[in-house]
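As a warm-up, study this chain.
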Amino acid sequence: MANFTNSETSCEGFESTWKKSRDMREGYSQTSEVLTDEQETQSQSKIDSGLQTDVSNELEVRLDAPDTPELAEFLAKLEPLVYKELEQNARSRAFDGYSADWTECDANISCRHSLCQQGMLNESHVTAVNYNSTGSVVAVAYGRQDHADWCAHRGVVATWNTERGGMKSGRADNALELASCVTSVAFHPELPGRLAAGCYAGEVVVWDVGEGSEYRGDPQGASHREPVTGVVWLREQRGRKLLSASSDGKLIQWNLNLRKRRLDAETVFLVPARPGAQVRGRPGDLVASSQRSGSESGVTAIAFSSEDPTQFVVGTESGSVFKCSIEATVPAVSNLPDGGDFISPVTLSYEPHRGPVYGADWSGFHRNAVLTCSTDGSVRLYNSLQIAPVLVVEPGAGYLYGVRWSPTRPLVVAIATGDGRLLLYDLLANRIAPSETLEVSESGRPVYCVVYNPRSRSSVATGDAHGIAKIWRLGEELVGQQPKEFEVLAKMVNIGGTE
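Now compare it with the structure written out below.
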C-alpha cells in the first residue's frame, strides 16, 4: 500500500532564446474642434402696387365742315359709273389663276441645283421626282428602268431641302432605303412630311419623315404583282387615302391605318385590256408582260382632275388612254391567278397611242384639258369629253417619258425626252417647235421625269438616267401669264366639243 505526503517545491524560470520582450505604451489622438455658427435671415417686407391704363373715351370724328352741295352733286353723278365698273371687274377673267409670287424671275433659264445621292451616279436612274406641299423639299426616287429580269438592285428615296443653307448636293438630308428599285414617289398635298413610294417588286410604302413612322401593306391583303408605276394621294377630308397604279393592271386604293401602322387595301380596280393595239416598245421595257392574262392592261401613267377629285385618266403599256372614276362600281372580268373581286374604273376610252404611255397630266386651268405622251414620240391633247385628240405634237425627240402643264401659264407644257432634253412648249406662240430646249443630260441619256414646284412658279425639276436630279429656274416669258391665254386654251380644247 502506497502512502502520499504533501511536498513543496520551488519554481524555476528561464528566458526564451528566440522571443524578445515587448514594450507597450498608451497614446491617443483627436481631430481639431469643429466650430459651428447659427444665422437667421428674413425676406424684406413686400409692397403691393397696381397699374392700370386710363379709361379711354370714345373719340368722335367730325368733319370741319359738311359736304358742299357741289361735291354732293358730283358724287351722286359718279356713283352709277363706279358701280358699273366694279361689276365689270367682278365678271372679268383677266386675273383668273393669278397668284402673287415675289420670287424674282430672270429672263434667262439657269440650273440652280444638281443633286445626286452618294453611290448613285451612273449606277441608278432617277425614276421620279416630287415636291412637298411647301415647295422647299424635293424627293428623288432611285432605281433602274432597264430591267431584263427580276430586280436585284437596292432602291433609295432621297430628300433635299433646297431652301436650307448649307445644303450638300451630294448628300441628301434623308435617305430611305428599300429592297428593290423605287419606281414612283409622291408627297402628301397638305402634310409636308408624309411621303409615299412605289417599288419595282410591287410594294407601296408610306413614311412620316419627321416622326420616323413607316407604313406598309398587310402581307395577307391585296397587293401588286408587278412594278408600281404611280402613287397619288386622294383629296379627302382625313388625308389618309392614296391610289397606287401598277403594270399588273391593278389600281389599289389604300387607307393609312395610323393605329396599326400599316396600309389597308380598301378597293381594287382592274383596268381592262384594249385588244388590237399596235405597240412599239423599247429595249428593256420597265413593264414585262410575260404574266399578263389578257383581261387587263398594265397601267404606266396616271393623272387626277384638278377640279373633280373622283375623275382621273390612265395611260397603259398597250398605248390605250382611259378616263376613270374612283366611284365606279361595275365589276371587272379577270383571269388573274390571285383571283379576287375587282372593279372596272373605266368610263371612257380615248383614241390610243401607238406605244406605251409614260406621261399624263390634267390641266389646272381647264377642267377638260388632258395631256399624254408616249414612246411613239407624240404628245396628245385630249378634251376629256371626246374620244379623239384635239391636238397632236410630235417633237421628233424619240421616246417621250414625261409631260407637265405649267402651274402658272395655261399654255406652257414641259416634256421629258429620251434624247436627254427638256422641251418647253409655249402653245400660245408656237404649236410646232419648242420655245426653249434644255440639255439636261450632256451625253444624251434619257430624261425620265419632270415636275413643277407647286409654290415657286419659276422652278421645275428633272431626273435623268445618270442618276442626277436638276432644279431649273425658268425665265419670265415662261412664267408670267400672257393676255388671252384662257380664251386660246378654251378654243383649243373645245374644238368640236363643249366647254
